[in-house]
Amino acid sequence: MMFVLALAALSTPAAAQQQKKKQPDPNVTAAKRTLAHLDRIDDWESLFDGSSLKGWTGGTDKYLAENGVLKCTPGARSLFTEKEFSDFVLSFEFKLTPGGNSGIGIRVPTDGHAAYDGMEIQILDHNHEKYAKLKPWQVHGSIYGVMPAKTGYLKPLGEWNREYIICIEEHVMVILNGAVIVDAMLDKLTPVSGREVPGLRAKKGHLVLAGHNDPIEFRDLKIKDFSVSAPVPKTSADNTAPAGFRALFNGVDLKGWKGLAHKKAPERRALKGAALRAAQAEADDNMREHWRVVEGVLTYDGKGRSLSTTKNYGDFEIYVDWKIPPGADSGIYLRGTPQIQIWDPWDARTKKDLPLDTPEDWVVAYRNGRNLGSGGLWNNKRHRNSPLVLADNKPGEWNTFLIRMVGEKVTIYLNGKLIVDQVVLENYWDKERNAPVYRSDQIELQHHGSPLYFKNIYLRELPW
Asked: Which class is domain 23-225?
């Protein structure tokens, strides 16, 4: 009887409501991974020294710097950073007054309008009665006129709010008081206001405090630059990561790497429990037979399987030095998806009736396939799959990739030359190529039955 009564109690509307309240907030859950990344940043650049408007220009007469607080006073308009920024994370605190209205302009040209020539992230007490008829794309945190933000995360008036604005290539995320309220890819957005916003296509510009006459306070304004890195890393020795990166290969052993448990990513991702453990153990045994470290070089004998990182990655930059013998074929899978092509452009395999004397003649005469060079997204069908230029060094010589992946798009430099410029990596595992690539998965060094050599593998995770 007691058990039945307990079940009955749990089935009442009040109990059901209590159970519902215990469910984690999905917007808070979504922010945890990103916030953990931001907490690891130790080289923020301050945008406000706490006592002056140094580094800012524009309507400085209506902004006051007092005791670590930047105050926007009545009559204030736009305050611009002197510097321009392209890809970054902006961190700041703000305090609203009743009905307070402001904004943060990003990628705004000099003297441009924050909401249209750039993009404006709303700063607003949207709960005030005077905003009863507010449009959804005007609430706090929205990309003004473009995308509404989720609501319910502002602190009471008079309290400080913590906000992060992530703007890396076409990815824009806004985190307010520990919750994701905007997460968007600009190339997939159409302004909901119906008005064109040219600033959605801006690549760089100033940050702007877009004052709207109302008193609002800011403090602890700081920024972390995530602009594209130099095409070739600046390092002091092999397998020693440059500033901001970490080495995925230590030059000594296979720590941080694992065997490929299944060559098809969907099947591999579906493995669970004992099946996964067994498949991975067998793959690791195979890895140890065919991958080894020789004088600081990750060396493959051409007889086993591809090699995978033990961790999954979302958005990132990675440097990779690679070398292949004549005629070899390899590649790099991003998030478990093929592939950035590596092959020998001077492998003089010719068609019938195409007489060629040298490998160089092959490159000039046969403009299709491997002779176009390494670095292309070769399995693409709808988007460009070949490199912009041939940038390979000859077989037997070392080459350097810088690969940058944000969302679905990939940018690649080979030996200092831009060869892929923000091209969509199509999902090879989707027959129709309509599904996007996985948002996070392993990086793989692919084999096609030939010896391979890698070193100086450095990765920088980008917030997402």
From this structure: mainly beta
